[in-house]
Amino acid sequence: MNKVISLMGPTASGKTDLAISLKKNFNIEIISVDSVMFYKEFNIGSAKPDSKTLIDFPHRLVNILEPCQKYSVAQFYQDLLIEISNIHSMKKIPLLVGGSMMYFKTFFSGGLSKLDEISDDTRKKVADMLKNNNLAYLYSYLKKVDPESSNKIHFNDKYRIVRVLEIYFSNKDKPSDIFNKCSENVQYFDNLNLSIIPSERKILHNNIEKRLNIMFEQGFLNEVSNLKNKYTGLYLPAMQTIGYKQVNEYLNGGYDTHVMKSKMLFATRQLAKRQITWLRHLDATTVYSSTDYDNIKYRVSNFLEDI
What we know:
- This protein has about 300 residues and is α/β, with parallel strands linked by helices.
- The chain has 14 helices and six strands.
- It has three domains: about 5-115 and about 185-200 and about 280-305, P-loop containing nucleotide triphosphate hydrolases (Rossmann fold, 3-Layer(aba) Sandwich); about 120-180, Histone, subunit A (Orthogonal Bundle), CATH 1.10.20.140; about 200-270, Helix Hairpins (Orthogonal Bundle).
- Helices cover about 55% and strands about 10% of the residues.
- The protein has a six-stranded parallel β-sheet with strand order 3-2-4-1-5-6, with helices on both faces.
- Strand 2 (about 30-35), helix 2 and strand 3 (about 60) form a beta-alpha-beta unit.
- Helix 10 (about 200-215) crosses helix 13 (about 255-280) and helix 11 (about 220-230) crosses helix 12 (about 245-250).
- The chain is globular, with a radius of gyration of 20 Å.
């Protein structure tokens, strides 16, 4: 019992519905890989399944954190291994579902537990480097100090360039050496990696816009306002994520409703673009369109048939 299924896809691509459909048909347990769904009370903006759905189709690693708690990628990796082990002990198969690509990357690469904690000072140092120069400068700097790492990162991938430089300034070893050591910790599972990507970008963009409108109909503004009032003066990590960030700025008087929604839409589309880029460069994954349920179920059935 070492099989693990990973179902990945960009935001608003239908991952949750597909996961529930698979759970109805197979002996699986769902584990959420979504960095906002970890948090209690962050419901509408994270597109978290409603309470009835979570009762009927439990998602592990959902609502495990208080809004003020910090949560590292390394801690996620340890929690994930525990959940996988527990599910296997039940003679079931874990189904990892989500769009938080850094967390999937951590799972596939064996964790980042050997990394030293990245301090706020280090984050500020790298942020200042970017602010005072540009992304090309940061990439050039990374290429100079760790060519191996730079060769694996696209020169426009701001998130990964910043992340690797933060690791570089926080550790004695080069990031590439640290990542190579991480491979020693890889838990060798029999993996089936599935990616769902809409066949046309327009379809995804329409889905994103529809979801945004539904969020506001469900009371997204009230959700953020209540969180701000309940936790006044406290740092809420998930409040910095797409959607929550823009609504928070709107409630602080940063801009009007139209600008807020435009910023949300743009940021979400950019996120989806990054997610798709990551998925297309991921080894050992089978890519399906988000409506190709029958072929996905057939692939899962073949994967599980020898259990």
